[in-house]
Amino acid sequence: MLFFSVLRGWCQSPSVVPPRLAEGPASQRRLPSRRMRENAKRPTFAGVGRFFYSMLRIATWNINSVRLRLDLAARLLKQVKPDILCLQEIKCRDELFPREPFHELGYGHIAISGQAGYHGVATISKLPLTPLPKESFCGTADARHLGCQVHLPAGGTVAVHNIYVPAGGDIPDPATNPKFKQKLAYLDALASWKGGNNGGHAVLLGDFNVAPLETDVWSHKQLLKVVSHTPIEVEALTKVQKYGNWVDLVRRFIPPEQRLYTWWSYRALDWQASGRGRRLDHIWGSLPLAEAARGAEVLKEARSWQGPSDHVPILLDFDL
What is the assigned CATH class of domain 57-315? Predict the structure, then answer.
């Protein structure tokens, strides 16, 4: 009896069992059922076999400078306790990334693809990571993609592809705007990419800089000629999803009929009053991973934090 008591305590320790959606703030749409919450309390014998029940939480956030908003990153990790946090626009070189504060919070595995002053992505994890080949997609040296295999405690892996799609500038014309041309080239290359979804557990997430649905913007009619919601961008992103066999995981839990935003401009004096948001950030998954998805949340409150990013985090929970 003593052996099983010790084993049960070890398997339920925070270092072994990933946090669950019920432990964080309420989901914006669909919370786990009572049965799921009860199941989540069961012991998980990682040391002697496969997990009977294990929740994996993945978060993504365009932080708009990790060094400037390090305190907000720490706040997010303490509040929602993701197993994996993917950041975009870290805006620093690899060697200047603040690793130690994340290590102190229990995130001992960090992969970085950075560059000085612009762009850059990073994946921060409690679980071991194996790097995957970095892709440029549009033939530049911009740090816009980072792939990692995440090794699960119960065995198996999840391929996590963290991307930052070019914003595209202000003029939606590839003939006169090189930034918009680059954005379309990036999306076209991403649609042709064969290395992302190979039929196993895979996720493509980050700042896609496209709001594809009419309910992903505050005014479909007024934004049809505004970069991020133009028909040519929406068509290009739709091809990425179709050809890659990706599932929009957030919209599995928050219906397409419901307006949903992840970005509000700094230009608005009162972003809440204006309500002029867009859903630029996404989490897509392979079909097998979509079957394991259990809940989604857009952490809108983060837009009101002191010195915020103009984007807010997205969370996805999986039963793996």
Answer: alpha beta
